[in-house]
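Running this now, will post back.
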Amino acid sequence: MCEYFVKADPIQYEQRSRTIRIHGVLTSIRLENMVWDILAEMAEAEGCTTNALIVQFHDEILAHRGEVPNFASFLRVTGMRFLRRKLMALESALPNEGGAASPPLRPKVVNLGARS
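Update: finished.
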């Protein structure tokens, strides 16, 4: 199993900084290239830019928690949760042994900013 992970392209886990404007304030966010790719995929699914999605996440977590203590880590976990949700949706769409679609493992979350 480890071989699959060890052979990952180093470019995927190389970090890259981007400057994001959040309500007129420039801030730099440093994330792995793969995380940036996942955020871009999420933004495309939402019909917006990656920057707009990041600002939306910032606003929603600020409104929900009152602070944003480690925003880069939040974005990484958000990307992983997005991929997990996609995987669960695919698994629930696969036919089980009886030919019917498998029941979902968990309820599907529609809003990207909502907690599950």
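The domain at 2-93 is CATH 1.10.3990.20 (Ribbon-helix-helix fold). More later if anyone needs it.
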